[in-house]
Amino acid sequence: MSFKLEASITFKNKLKNFGKQEKKKVTTFINTFQNGGFLAIDNFKIQSFKVRNKRSDDVPTEDPLFVQKVKFALENKLWHFHAGFYSLSNNDIEGYTLSSKGDLTSQWVIHYQKFSDVYIKAVDITPHPPLDLPTEESFK
Amino acid sequence: MLKLLTSANTVTMERIKIASPGRRSLEKNRDIRRLKSITNSYEVHTFNYSIDDMKAAISAPSEEVPNINSVEDLDNWLDT
What is the largest CA-CA distance in chain A? Predict the structure, then answer.
């Protein structure tokens, strides 16, 4: 089975500015998808802990733009994968923080559109929180 | 004559009545299969390969990422 990963110009341009360690993390994301598709990135583990990969429509209900953000995330099939840089706590697990939910999170996330289990498009990389959704411009 | 016709009609109606449950059952099964078929294709179109998805994918300029196995591969692609 072949897996198709596309990248927007925004994603590619941002990636150029990262250092080697950050590029290594993004390489892992790309390589994992290219070899196993969505299931592989959705079950990616480091030291037996699952790396957080989730839909981007999980907007806090207190957000004043809750409805617009949820609608935008759903319409554009937005997901984000925790990239592995940087840990926001002293408890660092290869660039990740072990969350209270038992999975690994990081400051920076890779935003992507999931068209199917075998076809995604990386559109942006941003720090969070708060989680800002990628703009339509970043899809280009 | 009328009586005969009535009698014949009755027989015919009875035949239909006898045949109907089986036919209805066959038709029902066929309808279920058709409904399942429609439902399945609806799901495929809605969640995976809708026309809107394809339009969005085609209209936004993007680039397919070549096989990346190392940071060097990544850098080579970024330089293109």
Answer: 43
Question: Which residues 6+ apart lie within 8 Å of B65 measured at CB?
Answer: A5, A6, A7, A30, A34, A122, B77
DSSP A70-135: HHHHHHTTEEEEE-S---SSSSEETTEEE-TTSSEE-SEEEEEEEEETTEEEEEEEEE-SS-PPPP
| Mean pLDDT in order along chain B per 10 residues (80 residues) | 46 45 59 58 43 56 88 94
- Identify the residue whose tokens are 């949820």: A70
User: Who among A9, A30, A116 is closest to B65 (CB)?
Assistant: A30
Kindly identify which residue of chain B lies nearest to residue A2, measuring between CA atoms: B67
* CB contacts, 8 Å: B44 with chain A: none
Q: Rounded to whole angstroms, how far apart are CA atoms A126 and A140?
A: 16
Min Cα distance A131 → chain B (Å) is 23
**Between B30 and A132, the higher pLDDT residue:** A132
**Residue B63 C-alpha, separation from nearest chain A C-alpha, in angstroms:** 5
Q: Which residues of B5-35 are buried (b: 16+ CB within 10 A; e: fewer)?
A: eeeeeeeeeeeeeeeeeeeeeeeeeeeeeee
- Distance between CA atoms of A104 and A51, rounded to whole angstroms? 5
A120 contacts A33 by C-beta, under 8 angstroms:
yes
